[in-house]
């Protein structure tokens, strides 16, 4: 409604151009998939899988889920269609609706849209940096600025194990002060405590040991190259060791794009590396990295940083003023459209006043009026709504005016 659609069109157009520029291929996957895909892919202990999925039994009694995110479905398609046999590295992008049963609030919807990229077949910080650069270029491309790019390394799953033990020890010392949910997370997935919005849990988390101190040489090196490449691409970033991401598949380099103009739902994009997901979902071991960008949130920022100017008048409204002028009006209308002009005409004769109102509302520049008089002389009365002038034009000359 209103100008909302213009923002979507701008975001989609610019994103497509940039994704093309980065040599990504579009992929379209189903909205509904088998529930197990998301449980295995995203992780049974995550908030998304435990509380937020739209899951139901279909008529055949199978459990299906409306996708809460794009990565799992793209991985499933990548495996099913043996992309690895056709290309060494696949860079795939998608755009579409996602569904999460969350408590709706500003910037948090139950149906929202993501633009995302998944890069398969390479475990390289150069690819990680490229993925972050795409988000940065899309955001800048639509005129958004003043955001933070937070980056972190989560290490590999193996590196995370001793860290998780340390973390569990630390949080166990404070368990009486943790909220009920975090007391559960302590046993099941201690990293998730960092996601908790409870201020006391946040304060305790602030003093917790840092994963960055537990990284191997290789992960450290990857994190360093990642940073150097971001600098090279002109992406200003901040290392933020508290970025743990809400989904279980991440390893090594991860990131979030955050803006304080968005209120509490401040992240407009996020992603990172996932080297075990393809294998986890039944494919051959293949590394991956990607991002998901929340369109609604980026559009909120576009409205603030780069509001669209109201468009000027354009095109021609053809106004038949009598029943007998209908045929000729339709003929002129078709000629104008075939000439590439935006043109409209009512399907039934209406009063001149009501047609002028319609032309004005439709933001037309010209109105071509056609009554008995004009019909007899094979001409139209052409009114320029911007200039406030009008002149008679022969029907055969009408295309020359535009
Ligand atoms: P995510 O961080 O869960 O990651 O979501 C990515 C973005 O989607 C968020 O930063 C946010 O802008 C938007 N978003 C998420 N939930 C909502 C909601 N309820 N309402 C509005 N916007 C929302 C993923 O989904 C991963 N699949 C990203 C990824 C791709 N990682 C690797 N590849």
Report, as a whole number of angstroms, the end-to-end distance: 29 Å
Q: Output mean pLDDT.
A: 95
Bound small molecules, by name, code or SMILES, are: histidyl-adenosine monophosphate
Secondary-structure-derived class: alpha+beta
Globally, the shape reads: elongated
Uncertain parts? none
The residue fraction in helices comes out at 25-40%
**Strand content bin:** 15-25%
Characterize the largest beta sheet: strand count, sense, and whether it forms a barrel.
8 strands, mixed
Arrangement of strands in the largest sheet: 1-5-6-11-10-9-7-8
Radius of gyration: 28 Å
How many strands appear in the DSSP assignment?
16
- Summed up, the helix count is 15
Structure characterization notes:
It is a single chain. The chain has 402 residues and is of the alpha+beta class. Helices cover 39% and strands 22% of the residues. The chain has helices at 4-21, 35-42, 47-51, 71-80, 83-86, 125-141, 157-173, 180-188, 199-206, 217-232, 277-280, 295-305, 326-338, 352-361, 372-377; strands at residues 25-26, 32-34, 54-57, 63-66, 90-99, 111-120, 148-153, 238-239, 251-258, 267-273, 288-294, 316-320, 343-344, 366-370, 379-384, 389-394. An 8-stranded mixed beta sheet has the order 1-5-6-11-10-9-7-8, with helices on both faces. The protein has a 5-stranded mixed beta sheet with strand order 13-12-14-15-16, with helices on both faces. The chain is elongated, with a radius of gyration of 28 Å. It starts with a helix and ends in an 8-residue tail after the last strand. The model has no long low-confidence stretch (mean pLDDT 95).
